[in-house]
Amino acid sequence: VSANFIGNRMIEMDVASANLLTVSPGMIYDEPLEVAQKGAGQTTITAGAGVTLLAAGGALKLRVQNSVCKIAKVGTDTYRVWGDLVV
User: Fold this and answer.
1) How far apart are CA 29 and CA 35, in angstroms?
2) Is the CB of residue 65 less than 8 Å from the CB of residue 86?
3) Residue among 65, 77, 67, 1 at smallest CA distance from 33
4) How far apart are CA 13 and CA 87, in angstroms?
5) CB atoms within 10 A of CB 18
6) Beta bridge partners of 37
7) CA-closest candidate to residue 76, choices 30, 33, 38
């Protein structure tokens, strides 16, 4: 939700199987959001309709359990994703 991009926030994905975190369009706040893969299931960051995700080499999957990444708004419905990620 948009409020997740206010201040220092972390979402912990505590899931045993593969899972998705979708970045929705229309976010209005600008602070980076941290995402941690707490559970064993690999977390993939996905783009909602009309959203562009910018990540080095297209890497949008958290690498292993306890990996962390950040997502920051860089333009209207455009977000940069970086951290402990793989393709």
Assistant:
1) 16
2) no
3) 1
4) 18
5) 11
6) 13
7) 30
Give dist(CA 85, CA 9) in Å, integer: 19
Sign of CA dihedral 70, 60, 86, 38: positive
pLDDT digits (tens, 9 = 90+) for 19-69: 999 999 988 888 889 999 999 999 999 999 999 999 999 999 999 999 999
- Token pair listed for 72: 């920051």
Q: d(Cα 62, Cα 42) in Å, to the nearest integer?
A: 6
- Burial, 81: exposed, middle or buried (Cβ in 10 Å; 0-12, 13-18, 19+)? buried
Alpha helices in the chain (DSSP H): none
Nearest to 71 by CA among 52, 87, 57, 86: 52
